[in-house]
Amino acid sequence: MALSIQPLHPQFVGEVSGVDLTRPLGRDEVAAIEAGMDRYAVLVFHDQRLADEQQMAFTRNFGEIENARGGNVTRAGQHRLPQGMNDVSNLGRDNQPLARDDRRRLFNLGNQLWHSDSSFRAIPAKYSLLSCRLPATVGGNTEFADMRAAYDALDARTKEQVADLICEHSLMYSRGSLGFTDLTDEEKALFRPVRQSLVRVHPVSGRASLYLSSHIGTIVGWPRPEAMAFIRDLVEHATQPGFVHVHRWRQWDLVMWDNRQTMHRVRRFDESQPRDMRRTTVAGDAPTAEQIAA
Predict the structure, then answer these.
(1) 20 to 30 A from 217, CA-CA: which of 15, 16, 55, 280?
(2) What pLDDT, on the 0 to 100 scale, is given for residue 9?
(3) Quick check: 81 and 96 in contact, CB under 8 A?
């Protein structure tokens, strides 16, 4: 059976069949998946029983795996997964749910906010690939928002207004909005703000997207309250139901998305039960804005 992609959402989600991600892929298969990403921005693969090394091997078809350092508060000796894997589960090294007051759990609650992975890095991420090893018993859906459609739907005045704006992004902003402010000096240094363009243009399709994220803390040159009110309006616009797809996880699903063209968030789930989700991230290749000390 040849690889094929069928639309799940007319605008930006495709369901892929006819491919086994546990084995090495041919050049044509990789090209077809990349073309699907350029068209849809989110691809869903069902029944992919991936081991960690297989997931990383599949990810490397699309670029280098991003270094996870600077993206969490997990300390040495607390890591559950091998280097190259991002642990977005609710589990400790004993594979049991983290305590309610565990810093890692509280920090990871930020994943419930609309965001783009690694927008807090000077060179932000290209693709994310999330493998569901064990879904939540209650809740835990992931929602995706099409930032291309959101940009297209802006009125002409707002498009002109956002065209050249630069925002500052940091994990301190997203986590701070939830009240998570107890950071070490080392964490504050790792999370120092970076600058990103508010509008990005896809290198293949040429389509413009809003580059929004909960990591945004201000717009360069704007008073911060005005900036945050404007960003809030844009996020409300971009996450209207018509721009959003809800993925209801099944065990062994893999979902791949383009961080340059989408936002996403996880919904609340029963954290007394294990939810095992493992992400690999394809590194980006260039900054979106000049980095000046914030």
Answers:
(1) 280
(2) 87
(3) no
Measuring CA to CA, how many Å separate 211 from each of 105, 113, 140, 224?
A: 26, 15, 24, 18
Question: Could you give the 3-state DSSP secondary structure of residue 173?
Answer: helix
Q: Name, in order, each residue with C-beta under 8 angstroms of 189's C-beta and a sequence gap of 6 or more.
A: none
Helix, coil or strand: residue 254:
strand
pLDDT in tens, 14-60: 999 999 999 999 999 999 999 999 999 999 999 999 999 999 999 99
pTM of the model: 0.96
CA distance 99 to 173: 24
Instruction: Please report the beta strands in 84-207, taking only residues with DSSP state E, as ranges in sequence order.
Output: 86-87, 127-134, 142-146, 166-169, 194-197, 199-201
Q: Output the CA torsion 8→260→168→194 (10° steps).
A: 130
Q: For the chain, how long is the longest CA-to-CA vector?
A: 57
3-state helix, strand, coil in the chain (%, to 5): 25, 25, 50
Element (DSSP H or E) covering residue 15: strand 13-17
